[in-house]
Amino acid sequence: MEDKRKRNLILNGLLVGAFVLFLFWAQGNLDGYKIQIMNLIAVNIILALSLNLIYGFAGMFSLGHAGFMAIGAYTCALLIMPPLQKQVLFILEPAMWPFSVMHAPFLVAVILAGLMAALAGILIGLPVLRLGGDYLGIATLGFAEIIRVLANNLPRVTNGALGFKGIPDYANIWWNYGWCFITLVIVIRLVNSNYGNALKAIRDDEVAARAMGINTFRYRLTAFAIGSFFAGVGGALLGSLLTTIDPKMFLFLLTFNVLMIVVAGGLGSITGTIIAGVIITVLLEWLRIVENPITIGEFYIPGIPGMRMVVFSLALLFIILFRRQGIMGRKEITWDTVFALFRKRGVEK
């Protein structure tokens, strides 16, 4: 067992080292558009891992991710923009103190963005986590809409409908994949610990878990807060990556995109989340072609904005109907499964 653990640690280190080398190569050889897609992949994986912790491992059907992302994005933007820039941006009404003078390094801003989202997760979780199933989903969806409406109607804090433009673009490929790695490690350690086992027991049968002495509400609230923290981190990174945010950005469609990655990858599968995060992020960009005008012979088909989301909605329906478990189900790709597969192929030959 100890030898296997050392082997896995060495192989994981080599894998991370190889990926770091790939990032160095990508930064020097890929164009800005491809780098942007790579950045979006990292952010989407962070968001999907945080939602999978809430929904896939703890069994809480939450539709409030856009709200936590908005809290993280606005908190980070207010902290990393210099005071002089805020004076220029707040046109309708001047920024409220202390938001007008706040300024912090990017790392501090991202951590505080996550903490603010986690605090919101605890405050909303205390009343709504006593609900279950569809009721919980509706309650968290309402929370996300409340956050968006507040962002639209607090001009002295969020600049109202105008939002923020020219946010410092600190969220480069190293920041995004660094946070992605941190999120991945923390989620893996959580779900493979006794705490993770308790979460899975609650997900599978909450009544039985409660009968075994597990404080189900405390475990669920903790998972909800941790998931909210990383949703806030993802929102902060996304705001800095795009350099602009406004209330229209945090509609339910944003939660739907993250939920689609989680469902497509497999509820309760970290490997599936990573695979689906890569595939769906790339396809979301590649399928922009269906929104452009198409000429086939003598036929002309005008471009229809939003058509790619129709395609993805249909894809999600097919996944739910024909492969509800997603790409990986609840399975994971580990070094043990990789070596077992190679041994099996060797025996077959």
Write down the overall mean pLDDT: 87
Amount of beta strand: under 5%
| Elements, N to C (H/E) | HHHHHHHEHHHHEHHEEHH
Biggest sheet overview: 2 strands, antiparallel
Secondary structure tally: strands: 4
Q: Write down the overall geometry.
A: globular
How many alpha or pi helices?
Answer: 15
> What is the CA–CA distance across the termini?
29 Å
Give, in spatial order, the strands making up the sheet with the most strands.
Answer: 1-2
Helix content percent band: over 70%
Rg to the nearest angstrom? 21 Å
Low-confidence stretches: none
Q: What is the chains' assembly state?
A: single chain
Class derived from helix and strand content: mainly alpha
Give a short summary of the structure.
The chain has 349 residues and is mainly alpha-helical. It has 15 helices and 4 strands.
Protein described:
- It is a single chain.
- With 349 residues, this protein is mainly alpha-helical.
- Helix content is 71%, strand content 3%.
- The strands form two sheets. A two-stranded antiparallel ribbon has the order 1-2. A two-stranded antiparallel sheet has the order 3-4.
- Helix 2 runs parallel beside helix 8 and helix 2 crosses helix 13.
- It is globular and about 65 Å long.
- The chain starts with a helix and ends with a helix.
- The mean pLDDT is 87.
Name the descriptors.
349 residues, mainly alpha, two-stranded antiparallel ribbon, 71% helix, 3% strand, globular
SSE blueprint:
Layout: H1 2-29, H2 32-57, H3 65-80, H4 83-89, H5 106-128, H6 133-152, H7 155-158, E1 164-165, H8 173-191, H9 194-204, H10 206-211, H11 216-242, E2 244-245, H12 252-265, H13 270-286, E3 294-296, E4 299-301, H14 307-322, H15 335-348
Helix pairs in contact: 2-8, 2-11, 2-12, 2-13, 3-5, 3-6, 3-11, 5-11, 9-11, 12-13
